[in-house]
Amino acid sequence: MFKKTIVVKLGTSVLTGGSAKLDRAHMVELVRQCAKLHNAGHQVIVVTSGAVAAGREHLGMHDLPTTVANKQMLAAVGQSQLILTWENLFNIYGLHVGQMLLTRADLDDRERFLNARDTMRTLLKHRIIPIVNENDAVATSEIKVGDNDNLSALAAILADADLLILLTDQSGLFTADPRTNKDAKLISQITEITDEIRQLAGGSVSGLGTGGMATKLQAADVAMRAGIDVVIAAGNEEQVIKRVAEGESLGTLFLSKKSPLEHRKQWILAGPPPAGQITIDAGAETAVVAKGSSLLPKGITHVAGAYGRGDVILVMSQTGKVIARGIARYSSIELEAIKGIHSEDIEKTLGYVYGSVAIHRDDLVVL
Ligand SMILES: Nc1ncnc2c1ncn2[C@@H]1O[C@H](COP(=O)(O)OP(=O)(O)O)[C@@H](O)[C@H]1O
Ligand SMILES: N[C@@H](CCC(=O)OP(=O)(O)O)C(=O)O
């Protein structure tokens, strides 16, 4: 069976069941489904809302505050309760969780993006469930993602996910808001988000979540552009996570045209102008061109230009021919220090290591 990387986004409406506190009984059921997928060999990442709701419950506040600062206060109180709840629930299945609190500003910054991606990958490698929420304490109006739908699309990109499942209190995207329109019909598949589709999505009516369907469509748009399929489905549908992950037609599927890898390679080719270059020896050229291998520091003979981790660079042959374009895993200063050495010696030379490769084969397009 194909092992997938799946991001499951749980909205406030799903986690509270429409009440003013966390619905722990339902959370147990959602965790059971995630644990089952995890144990079948898939990689599962949870994007959780509910910090504000948990804070409200913990402090016994009945009215939902309207000011951003008060919501931030509730999120600060509630996030620790929320993560503890997830840790305790996943523990039932012998699993640990790792908390990642992110903002869009973190992910817009190339260096921080790569650092967050390293954390995500390392958690997954150690079979720990990453639990992501917005860092509400520092998310102001300029920098906040604004809702966890958009954040979940960024988390899916960070995780190189195959599938993003947005669970909410409706069974998918309807032709109109089903709360106010009884004749609204479920749309089962979308291959392109057009203006007509966007017009179907109103704001949140539940008053518990923030974005309604509009932010789910924004998230679906971002994820699809990165080659990630998206499903919007109801959080209370039986075995919903497992069934969607297995490809059952449930809710609304947003089908992406390209795979994440094809998308990334296209971006490397057509994206930003190269920030610099490296020259490699004949052995490395054979490995990269003929075998499709990653490029190791050992094969680098020359570094030119000033660039950072995550920048697109050119890979040149000894005769000055451009062989490939790729995303550098180390800055030009770091590559200058580690060129020609064995990967095991990177740590000794730099004092730290981001991995054994200078450019990973998934980040490399041979020309
Ligand atoms: N076309 C539509 N199809 C389905 N739901 C819609 C549509 N337009 C607006 N909505 C509203 O979006 C709400 C879900 O968004 P929201 O309350 O933000 O949930 P969450 O907390 O899960 O993010 C639904 O309860 C529904 O009333
Ligand atoms: N970060 C906030 C969630 C923001 C929000 O309301 O998201 P959502 O319910 O997914 O629309 C929290 O944890 O309460």
UniProtKB/TrEMBL annotation:
<dbReference type="GO" id="GO:0004349">
    <property type="term" value="F:glutamate 5-kinase activity"/>
</dbReference>
<keyword id="KW-0028">Amino-acid biosynthesis</keyword>
<feature type="binding site">
    <location>
        <position position="9"/>
    </location>
    <ligand>
        <name>ATP</name>
    </ligand>
</feature>
<keyword id="KW-0641">Proline biosynthesis</keyword>
<dbReference type="InterPro" id="IPR019797">
    <property type="entry name" value="Glutamate_5-kinase_CS"/>
</dbReference>
<dbReference type="InterPro" id="IPR001048">
    <property type="entry name" value="Asp/Glu/Uridylate_kinase"/>
</dbReference>
<comment type="similarity">
    <text>Belongs to the glutamate 5-kinase family.</text>
</comment>
<keyword id="KW-0067">ATP-binding</keyword>
<comment type="function">
    <text>Catalyzes the transfer of a phosphate group to glutamate to form L-glutamate 5-phosphate.</text>
</comment>
<keyword id="KW-0808">Transferase</keyword>
<feature type="binding site">
    <location>
        <begin position="168"/>
        <end position="169"/>
    </location>
    <ligand>
        <name>ATP</name>
    </ligand>
</feature>
<keyword id="KW-0418">Kinase</keyword>
<dbReference type="InterPro" id="IPR036393">
    <property type="entry name" value="AceGlu_kinase-like_sf"/>
</dbReference>
<feature type="binding site">
    <location>
        <position position="49"/>
    </location>
    <ligand>
        <name>substrate</name>
    </ligand>
</feature>
<dbReference type="InterPro" id="IPR015947">
    <property type="entry name" value="PUA-like_sf"/>
</dbReference>
<protein>
    <recommendedName>
        <fullName>Glutamate 5-kinase</fullName>
        <ecNumber>2.7.2.11</ecNumber>
    </recommendedName>
</protein>
<feature type="binding site">
    <location>
        <position position="148"/>
    </location>
    <ligand>
        <name>substrate</name>
    </ligand>
</feature>
<dbReference type="InterPro" id="IPR002478">
    <property type="entry name" value="PUA"/>
</dbReference>
<keyword id="KW-0963">Cytoplasm</keyword>
<dbReference type="InterPro" id="IPR041739">
    <property type="entry name" value="G5K_ProB"/>
</dbReference>
<feature type="binding site">
    <location>
        <position position="136"/>
    </location>
    <ligand>
        <name>substrate</name>
    </ligand>
</feature>
<feature type="binding site">
    <location>
        <begin position="210"/>
        <end position="216"/>
    </location>
    <ligand>
        <name>ATP</name>
    </ligand>
</feature>
<keyword id="KW-0547">Nucleotide-binding</keyword>
<dbReference type="InterPro" id="IPR011529">
    <property type="entry name" value="Glu_5kinase"/>
</dbReference>
<dbReference type="InterPro" id="IPR036974">
    <property type="entry name" value="PUA_sf"/>
</dbReference>
<dbReference type="InterPro" id="IPR001057">
    <property type="entry name" value="Glu/AcGlu_kinase"/>
</dbReference>
<dbReference type="Pfam" id="PF01472">
    <property type="entry name" value="PUA"/>
</dbReference>
<comment type="pathway">
    <text>Amino-acid biosynthesis; L-proline biosynthesis; L-glutamate 5-semialdehyde from L-glutamate: step 1/2.</text>
</comment>
<dbReference type="Pfam" id="PF00696">
    <property type="entry name" value="AA_kinase"/>
</dbReference>
<dbReference type="InterPro" id="IPR005715">
    <property type="entry name" value="Glu_5kinase/COase_Synthase"/>
</dbReference>
<feature type="domain" description="PUA">
    <location>
        <begin position="276"/>
        <end position="359"/>
    </location>
</feature>
